[in-house]
Fold:
Amino acid sequence: MARTQLVVTFLLGVVLALSAALVVTSGRGMPEAYGQTAGNNDMIAIMGTMNTGKGPCDNLYMVDSKTMRLAIYQWNGQTLQLMAVRNMTYDMKPEQYPDNNQKPTVAEIRDATRAEDPHNKKPK
Structure:
């Protein structure tokens, strides 16, 4: 009986402590997440994790909008390796790619919304 009272007293203390913590933090809501920006607006870096079958690794994707380059680095826990670099200048030229499967096409949407366009510009 004394053991049961001890357990009940302990659990009551835990509930009381958690309730007090909830009351103290209730005015703040969820903790805020902060991001950091750098002075270089031409460079974007994105982190990601992927599993290649040989275990998880971290990827860093860097996009340089000034030179239109994409670089992919991979960190496997021991080494950082440059995996690929691509010039994206010409990747952004097509209106639509591939042109065979996408419905509605860019041209169909452009033609359907042309009347709403205040500038009513013709495509180049």
